[in-house]
TrEMBL record:
Keywords: DNA-binding. One of its GO terms (molecular function) is DNA binding. The lineage of its organism: Bacteria, Bacillati, Actinomycetota, Actinomycetes, Micrococcales. This is DNA-binding transcriptional regulator, ArsR family. The keyword Coiled coil does not apply. NCBIfam families: HTH_metalloreg. It comes from Arthrobacter cupressi.
Length: 128
């Protein structure tokens, strides 16, 4: 396993813990389509706006979203770079696993071709 900076590990831990909750995953999915306010994010959920705000705070602390002020609006923004870091972390292990599977496939294929007997000549018509 590659060495990982403790700060990076803590950020990964917070991000994955934040994404473990289905409400927060739905918020991230919604924000992938564009910025939204707490009120807009709360619409599809049968929970209070305060609860949605707490979910957003968890996502903020994990570095997955940010908020800004636009006059009276306080839109929430998805941090695409944070998602890219998570994807890159997952990809390094996916690529390692794919490499192992390719090597295993090649080994199994070579063993199978060794076991298949050379085809015997086919009998001519009338011979048996």
């Amino acid at each position: 396993m590659p060495h990982q900076d403790p700060l990076d590990a803590a950020l990964l831990d917070r991000a994955f813990m934040a994404l473990a909750d289905p409400v927060r995953r739905n918020i991230v999915a919604r924000l992938s389509h564009g910025d939204a306010t707490v009120n807009e994010l709360a619409e599809p959920f049968a929970i209070t706006k305060q609860a949605v705000s707490k979910h957003i705070q968890v996502l903020e602390q994990a570095g997955l979203v940010t908020r800004s002020r636009d006059a009276q609006r306080r839109p929430v923004h998805l941090d695409a770079a944070a998602l890219e870091r998570l994807t890159a972390w997952i990809d390094q292990y996916r690529l390692q696993a794919e490499g192992r599977y390719r090597r295993l496939d090649a080994l199994l294929e070579s063993q199978a071709s060794e076991r298949i007997p050379k085809s015997a000549p086919t009998p001519r018509s009338g011979e048996q």
